[in-house]
Design brief:
Elements (H helix, E strand, L loop, with lengths): L1 E5 L3 H12 L3 E5 L3 H10 L1 E4 L5 E4 L2 E3 L10 E4 L10 H6 L6 E4 L5 H6 L6 E6 L2 E6 L2 E5 L4 E7 L3 H4 L11 E4 L2 H22 L5 H4 L1 H17 L9 H10 L6 H7 L6 H14 L5 H15 L5
Parallel strand pairs: 1-2, 1-6, 2-5, 3-10, 6-7, 7-8, 11-12
Antiparallel strand pairs: 3-4, 8-11, 9-10
Helix pairs in contact: 6-8, 6-10, 6-11, 6-12, 11-12
Length: 300
């Protein structure tokens, strides 16, 4: 299978390496010329979940017209960068297959207005850490979940061929439930690790932080009771335990002076809760705290 990965971040590079190592053709579309040159000259240094290193070469460009238009395009940029890609989506054919991999739920509305006939949604449960422009670490095995958003349901089935022991792929029936579950998980883990400035495991290591985590979980789940069977507090705690040494993506953005995904993760959930008639005061306070942290940091 032939893929174009849009985005040179941690998740995009892990997916690119995992696909390439199992024989799939992968090209990269990156934003900066500096990253393009680094990957073109050095390749991507990939450290797998067992600590083993390898170097993978890719066709890489900052110009979409240089890349295979009829490939499956995996959109692995953050939500606040999607509008910048509007010219790309206009340029691509209606028959080009798109797979969106973003945090939160805001990108659902964005995808609705695109002309492409086949659109899928993805959710990642593995850890990824970008070391520099051409180095990435796969931190912990977790599934890439994929669900159909627009087009024939049969379009999803071929993605089972991508699965391996180190890169499991799960095909889901309902994209909205899948994305909501991940957004809720991010609301708990990303939010509190960033505000407390700790790694994931610290949220359950100390009684005080575990109490805050549990209180936030209880409040938010009052608005989403149907999700309790999909995401129990024990599930949240197990994610913290299994990724104990990981730095959440939001905390990593904060540490590196990047724009945090405050609106797409927390804002989307707050809005949806309000539509259901619930005021999530604790989560709203966290939203304001994160905004204050963002305003005090470097934005790029």
């Amino acid at each position: 299978m032939h893929f174009v990965i849009v985005g040179g971040g941690a998740v995009g590079l892990v997916i690119a390496n995992s696909l390439a190592q199992f024989g799939h053709s992968v090209e990269l579309l990156v934003h900066s010329e500096k990253q393009r040159l680094a990957i073109q000259n050095e390749g991507v240094t990939f450290t797998n979940c067992y600590g083993e290193k390898s170097v993978q070469k890719f066709v890489v460009s900052t110009n979409a017209t240089d890349l295979q238009q009829q490939a499956i395009w995996i959109i692995a940029v953050k939500y606040h960068h999607l509008n910048e890609l509007t010219p790309l989506f206009n340029q691509l054919s209606e028959d080009t297959e798109l797979l969106f991999i973003q945090n939160g739920i805001r990108h659902i509305e964005f995808a609705k207005n695109l002309k492409q006939n086949t659109i899928l949604m993805g959710s990642v449960e593995f850890g990824a850490e970008k070391v520099d422009n051409h180095s990435v670490i796969h931190r912990g095995i977790g599934a890439l979940k994929i669900a159909n958003y627009r087009g024939q349901q049969s379009n999803v089935e071929k993605y089972s061929l991508l699965a391996s022991n180190e890169f499991p792929v799960a095909l889901m029936n309902d994209y909205s439930k899948m994305l909501l579950r991940k957004a809720l998980l991010n609301c708990f883990v990303n939010t509190l690790t960033t505000i407390l400035r700790v790694k994931n495991g610290a949220l359950i290591e100390y009684p005080s932080s575990e109490k805050i985590l549990h209180q936030l979980y209880q409040e938010v789940m009052t608005a989403f009771p149907e999700q309790k069977s999909e995401l129990s507090f024990e599930d949240v705690a197990n994610v913290c335990k299994n990724t104990a040494q990981n730095t959440s993506s939001m905390f990593a953005d904060y540490l590196n002076g990047r724009i945090m995904e405050i609106d797409t993760i927390l804002g989307g959930i707050i809005d949806l809760a309000q539509e259901r008639g619930y005021a999530v005061h604790m989560l709203s306070t966290c939203y304001s705290l994160l905004q204050a942290m963002q305003e005090g940091g470097v934005r790029n």
